[in-house]
């Protein structure tokens, strides 16, 4: 059985603060506890996991690594589907808008995901206006959400799906046909779609994975693809860095070269080898620290069929820009691979970009960053007041409430 070691998707590596020494020499654990690498579910689940479309349920292992329970065959809820689709289309991680659904208040964990889709007209309520977040979704319903969320080609008059169990007069027929035409589904058999069967987490992961394989990516989705490609590369890199103790020879690169080449181009491989051989294994000095989750400073340089090149900023102490990350991935015979990566540090205040964020932008970025990396549940940010060139927010989370003051120009959190 192939073993993989993941440091919580290395999200703490994304912040540049993970020490590698504590787990060196440990026996590798599988990345997923309930998805075998030999199963049909592994590829789609791994794809959406590294894209951070589906995050799973993490658990710490005795060796200091983190594995994830993905529950692939569990029926997905409407709230869970909203999160996956919102993340899949590349939405921001937070919104200050409030949902109109009476059963999705601001304290619900999926509030922002649902609200973002609600604002885009992707989801709607029942006869009473409720969203019903814990209800299950059937294949007909998910077809509609995917078509509208990912903006797939759609013709309401094109209703000949080729499935015997989908009437051309049914409401779902044009949505199912859109999935068929886009190559997203082939049905549960050659002539059945099974519209009213509940959708599992694996099935939705597979749908989204196929959309990424077949659809022209807009800039938001291209960022998600770049994130997934980089995270897969980063996971392979650091999983092998920590296989030996810092006072022992580094684990030979040749032993995992084939795996590394699944996510890096041959042209970029020499840089990977150099970084691997010089990576400190007993300190926090890490090279691959980009996360590509936040859209702060997001600039798409090139987005074509074969190349995605972009820049994003990483912040500390609130929203203070400290690093600009540059990433280029190439489509290598149908597989996206890292072709270039570098980072630029803003060493002085004069070098830092001036943000001049609105209150809504500041709240969205800070709330989104906390939601992406924090182990606690972030409910919402509330603007209390503006004073002396700063925004004063109240952050509400599962660990209590706290007041946060943010400088408008620099994004620095003031104490």
UniProtKB/TrEMBL annotation:
It comes from the Bacteria. The keyword Repeat does not apply. Residues 1-28 form the signal peptide. PANTHER family: OUTER MEMBRANE PROTEIN ALPHA-RELATED. Transmembrane segments: none annotated. This is SLH domain-containing protein. Keywords: Signal. InterPro entries: Cell_Envelope_Struct_Comp, SLH_dom. The keyword Ion transport does not apply. Residues 28-96, 97-160, 163-222 form the SLH domain. It comes from Jeotgalibacillus alimentarius.
């Amino acid at each position: 059985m192939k073993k993989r070691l993941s440091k919580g998707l290395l999200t703490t590596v994304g912040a540049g603060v993970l020490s590698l020494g504590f787990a060196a020499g440990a026996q590798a654990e599988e990345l997923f506890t309930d998805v075998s690498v030999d199963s049909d579910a592994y590829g789609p689940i791994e794809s959406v996991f590294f894209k951070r479309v589906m995050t799973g349920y993490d658990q710490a292992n005795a060796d200091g690594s983190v594995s994830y329970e993905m529950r692939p065959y569990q029926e997905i809820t409407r709230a869970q589907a909203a999160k996956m689709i919102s993340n899949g289309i590349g939405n921001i991680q937070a919104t200050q808008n409030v949902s109109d659904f009476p059963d999705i208040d601001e304290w619900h964990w999926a509030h922002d995901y649902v609200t973002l889709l609600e604002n885009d007209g992707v989801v709607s309520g029942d006869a009473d206006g409720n969203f019903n977040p814990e209800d299950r979704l059937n294949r007909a319903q998910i077809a509609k959400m995917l078509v509208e969320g990912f903006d797939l080609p759609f013709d309401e008059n094109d209703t000949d799906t080729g499935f015997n169990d989908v009437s051309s007069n049914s409401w779902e027929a044009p949505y199912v046909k859109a999935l068929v035409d886009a190559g997203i589904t082939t049905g549960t058999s050659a002539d059945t779609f099974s519209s009213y069967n509940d959708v599992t987490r694996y099935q939705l992961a597979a749908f989204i994975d196929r959309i990424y394989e077949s659809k022209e990516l807009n800039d938001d989705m291209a960022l998600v693809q770049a994130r997934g490609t980089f995270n897969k590369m980063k996971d392979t890199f650091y999983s092998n860095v920590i296989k030996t103790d810092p006072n022992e020879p580094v684990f030979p690169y040749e032993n995992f070269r084939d795996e590394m080449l699944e996510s890096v181009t041959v042209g970029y491989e020499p840089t990977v080898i150099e970084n691997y051989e010089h990576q400190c294994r007993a300190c926090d000095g890490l090279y691959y620290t980009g996360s590509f989750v936040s859209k702060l400073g997001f600039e798409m340089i090139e987005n074509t069929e074969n190349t995605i090149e972009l820049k994003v900023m990483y912040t500390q102490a609130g929203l203070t820009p400290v690093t600009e990350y540059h990433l280029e991935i190439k489509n290598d015979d149908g597989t996206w691979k890292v072709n270039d990566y570098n980072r630029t540090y803003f060493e002085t205040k004069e070098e830092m970009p001036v943000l001049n964020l609105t209150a809504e932008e500041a709240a969205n970025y800070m709330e989104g960053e906390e939601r992406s990396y924090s182990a606690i549940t972030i409910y919402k940010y509330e603007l209390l007041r503006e004073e002396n060139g700063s925004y004063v927010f109240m952050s509400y989370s599962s660990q209590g409430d706290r007041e946060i003051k943010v400088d408008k120009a620099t994004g620095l959190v003031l104490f």
